[in-house]
Amino acid sequence: MGISETLSNPAPIGSQPDYETAIVGTGFGGLAMAIKLREDGQNSFVVIERGASVGGTWRDNQYPGAACDVPSHLYSFSFAPKADWSRVYPTQPELHAYLRKIADEHRLLPNIAFDSTLTGAAFDEARQLWRVEVSCNGVTRRFTARALVLANGSLAEPKLPDVAGVEKFAGKTFHSSRWDHHYDLAGKRVAVIGSGASAIQFVPEIADGVGHLDVYQRTPNWIIPRPDRPYSERLKALFAKLPMLRRVYRSFIYWAHEARVFGLVLNPQFMKLFQKIAQRHINRQVRDPALKRKVTPDYLIGCRRILISNDWYPAVSRANVDLVTEGIREIREHSIITTDGVERETDCIIFGTGFYATENPIGAVIHGRGNATLASEWSNGEEAYLGTLVKKFPNLFLIVGPNTGVGHTSMVFIIESQVAMIRRLLARLRRSGSGTLEVRAEVQDEFNRRLQAQLSRSVWSTGCKSWYQHRSGKITALWPGFTFSFRRRTQAVGERDYVLEKPVAIA
Ligand code: NAP
What we know:
Number of helices: 15
Number of strands: 20
Shape: globular
Largest sheet: 8 strands, mixed
CATH superfamily of the largest domain: FAD/NAD(P)-binding domain
Bound molecules: NADP nicotinamide-adenine-dinucleotide phosphate
Number of domains: 2
CATH topology of the largest domain: FAD/NAD(P)-binding domain
Helix content: 25-40%
């Protein structure tokens, strides 16, 4: 039976689940999980994907200039190396193509339900399985699964600014991750709200073609130079011929990035060296003293994500670009008014305003024991055990869950660590013949107590506001340490950490 038929014909109560595993999302996390399940001979899985192709963030973010801040040879699967990355920092089209190729090579497409949005999932305590509801082109489908893996991504739900009158604007609007390539920006009066990692990539790309550009910056970011370059054909051929050389190069990148943890977590004072580099970058690229003041942050570098760019300062220095630092008071039909009363005519607003990173809306539709939702459990900030297991949510596994984010290196390393752990736990569940696997509440609580203590001594707690924090101020996005220590912790998870429950009798 094909996936769509199974979804529309849920198995009757009392029988085996329709699938052993349901995975949500086909970004790096969802694809890695599916590939590893297949490697284990576990073919009873479905992957729910709201888009029309695989790729997650690298499918959604198609804005001009979209690229990754982590070098390609590290920002890729250890089990799917690519010798011919075109340049140091991979671009969005290259990453999207890489993920599509991998999904194809591993024959994952028949297991993926495309255009299907997860609308609800509830743990059925009596049957020890997840009841999953999906909307596919307006049609609701239901099925059951023994385990649910959420790999929906933490930077996937676009956030729009809560500015008065935003709904009254009569011109064109779109979010950076939903770029409208059919809309011609040529000659238009464009407003970009936000100056984060996305905006600093697309603003330099569009600045030349628009009529006028107002960039609304609320908080400046520290920016360091971007040492990007294409790889020569000779080097690509060498990487293909000598896999060992490629592996050594990957390790070199890994350790060079990992060294940043000394400053981020162990002693924030080390970050001052980076701040000198960033300050010199401003001094070299910005001549106008007023602009220099506007772009210079007043917090220690690293407290918010460090950005890399060679063309942001030249872009905001252009004659047709204004960097507006007054707050936005109101948006009207054809203009934006700032707190100083200045009104700027605007044809198009591009929201570079980021994502629901710490309060992902999906939390409201995931119901665990006693019908609690992830959102209600997390009202004071998201918590999990190693970003993967959540108390009261048996047989639920998160990829890129709370406190797994890393600003200093590749998320793919964290994802592979989580996938290896989930794979082991699913095998344990199967082999033990148990019905559920659930993290012990006291293990999760103690883990988070220590985690928060460590975060309180890190650079992220030196007095800035960032999307790493829940609105309560608690840092729920980041892992405070080396990624190899995260991996070691995931490898050490054992029965003292979780409870296995006997299976219920199956009719
Ligand atoms: P972001 O870093 O969260 O930036 C959002 C921007 O919008 C910030 O400048 C923010 O100001 C501003 N903003 C939000 N609400 C506003 C409002 N009401 N009024 C004025 N300004 C407002 O989002 P992003 O740029 O999309 O990047 C998100 C994350 O995605 C990054 O940090 C990174 O992890 C990832 N990313 C990575 C890359 C890469 O690898 N190169 C590229 C893009 C994205 P405040 O700073 O004051 O809040």
